[in-house]
Amino acid sequence: MLLLDESRYPRTELRVTCTSDDVLGPISNVPPEAGPRYAVRYEALKPGACTVTDRAFVVTVEIIS
């Protein structure tokens, strides 16, 4: 789960790229957060690597099993 501030990390600029399209799956039933924050959640579906980027950060996650 990522909890981000919309004013600093706009949802429209959030990008997730993975080694394969089926490494991560979005979780849609995320409870709302008090603004200006928002939460995004993903579940690992298989081993691989994914990079989450916005204008101010880069995070790489490696799923190993």
What descriptors fit this protein?
65 residues, mainly beta, three-stranded antiparallel β-sheet, 0% helix
What's the N-to-C terminus distance? 18 Å
Roughly what percent helix?
Answer: under 10%
The largest β sheet comes out as: 3 strands, antiparallel
- Counted by DSSP, the helix tally is 0
Spans of at least 5 consecutive residues whose pLDDT stays below 50 are: none
Describe the strand arrangement of the main beta sheet, using strand numbers. Answer: 1-4-3
Into which percentage range does the β-strand content fall? over 45%
Description:
- Strand 5 and strand 6 form a beta hairpin.
- By secondary structure, this protein is mainly beta.
- The strands form two sheets. A three-stranded antiparallel β-sheet has the order 1-4-3, with no helix packed on it.
- The two termini are 18 Å apart.
- The chain contains no helices and six strands.
- The protein is globular and about 35 Å long.
- It has one domain.
- The model has no long low-confidence stretch (mean pLDDT 90).
Write the layout of secondary structure elements.
Layout: E1 2-5, E2 15-18, E3 24-27, E4 37-44, E5 48-53, E6 58-63
